[in-house]
Amino acid sequence: MGIMFGFDERISPEQLRVWRAFERAYGRVSEQLEADLVELHRLPLAWYEVLARLSEAEGHKLRMSQLADMVMLSPSGLSRLVDRMIKEGLIRRIPVEKDARGFYAILAEPGRKRLEEATGTHHRGVLDYMISRFNDEELAQFTAFLERLHD
Amino acid sequence: MGIMFGFDERISPEQLRVWRAFERAYGRVSEQLEADLVELHRLPLAWYEVLARLSEAEGHKLRMSQLADMVMLSPSGLSRLVDRMIKEGLIRRIPVEKDARGFYAILAEPGRKRLEEATGTHHRGVLDYMISRFNDEELAQFTAFLERLHD
Question: Looking at domain A13-130, which CATH architecture does it have?
Fold first, then answer.
């Protein structure tokens, strides 16, 4: 049924299955986390992530390049996201000293409040949709497997 | 530094780490797979996935609802994607008999050719960015872990 390939490009169906399992697992988990955040807090998952990373950072601020790397967005994707979050008053933009073109995103008070309201929902989701599926040993193993894919 | 929570909403830093590891791993792998497909074949990853699922399906066609479920897109997201792929001539839309509002997406010849060209690139990426990081036993275990998150 599918397309035929040269020998050197073959991978086994079992090997291809890991990518499809990964895609589906990520899709399912992120879709459920996002649905809860949007329903209860009108907060898309990527917005939640930006607020959470800022709240954990020194001075509640991060350079745009650091933030882009943390939330796995392209610079242009992050820039659009940040513009919308500034418009809603959740974060602010402040210039970087001695770097005319650089700036930080910094958590604003409404953003801090919104994050505080939403964090329980997010953590409950991570528990329900991920952590509850594993015992402690499995969870450590799964995390270690995932971290092998980070570079 | 971070926000404080009520006791019942706490999850441990180790537990939260699995979600962040998952997010970063998925981001890294999909970003690398997409970069190769776009550079060598001008084919975004989601387009590749649509072509691959159609090529494997009976008659090279799928109902829109089946396809949306397979590629983890919302109906509106898939609809926009399919419109662009039809415009490029890679797939076609055909009506479902006895269902005035339903239709199939079906693989068109230029789409079949484009998929054939791109499949080696995709498989090499899955090997390099995922499979090569594990031995056979680990790969089976990792796949099984991922499949626990599917529902």
Answer: Orthogonal Bundle (1.10)
Quick one: closest CA in A to B121, which residue?
A9
- Mean pLDDT, residues A56-68: 93
User: Cα separation of A29 and B15, whole Å?
Assistant: 15
Confidence of residue B9 (pLDDT cuts 50, 70, 90): low
**pLDDT tens digits, B34-51:** 999 999 999 999 999 999
DSSP A43-59: --HHHHHHHHHHHHSGG
Read off the pLDDT band of B12 (50, 70, 90): confident
d(CA B24, CA B62) in angstroms, rounded, equals: 31
> B131–A11: do the CB atoms touch at under 8 Å?
yes
Q: Which letter does DSSP use for residue B94 in this model? A: E
CB A136 within 8 A of CB B16: no
B/e letters for B83-98, b = 16+ CB within 10 Å, e = fewer, are eebeeeebbbeeeeee
Q: pLDDT tens across B114-133, in order? A: 999 999 999 999 999 999 99
Chain A residues with beta carbon closer than 8 angstroms to that of B133: 148-149
ipTM above 0.90, yes or no: no
Distance from CA of B32 to the nearest CA of A (A): 10
Nearest to B149 among A57, A130, A143 (CB): A130
Q: Which of B2, B22, B112 sits opposite A146 (nearest CB)?
A: B22
Fold of B15-128: Arc Repressor Mutant, subunit A (1.10.10)
Contacting residues of B for A3, CB less than 8 Å apart: 55, 112, 115-116, 119
Which residues contact residue A33 at a Cβ distance below 8 angstroms, ignoring those fewer than 6 apart? A45, A122, A125, A126, A129
